[in-house]
Amino acid sequence: xxxxxxxxxxxxxxxxxxxxxxxxxxxxxxxxxxxxxxxxxxxxxxxxxxxxxxxxxxxxxxxxxxxxxxxxxxxxxxxxxxxxxxxxxxxxxxxxxxxxxxxxxxxxxxxxxxxxxxxxxxxxxxxxxxxxxxxxxxx
Length: 139
Fold this sequence. Notes:
Blueprint: E1 2-5, H1 10-13, E2 16-22, E3 33-38, E4 44-47, E5 54-61, H2 62-73, E6 79-88, E7 94-103, H3 105-108, E8 114-121, E9 124-131, H4 133-136
Parallel strand pairs: 4-9
Antiparallel strand pairs: 1-6, 2-3, 2-5, 3-7, 6-7, 8-9
């Protein structure tokens, strides 16, 4: 699996997606992330987290899904924007997109505080969302 910073191309926005809104367990909403899972492929993105940490919204066109994802991750007082990246399998096929927040560096020491990893097993892609090591060490 590879993550490439890239917005969806126009033809990709025409596809339908399942939008995964990852809340995590931080009470103030720090560390939210969103994932756009293409519905027209055999792969399924699945957060490795309790069901209460995320919700899924099915059958959204790409434009609506991306707009909702960006709004969702920006819903934090220290968020300054977002970063969209393509989730690409080993054959170079885009399976979907991740959208994560960027924060004021003064607050956390870095704008990107999430470490998101993907593990593929057959046609299931497990998503593991954690805070970066800097935050784990109490930064």
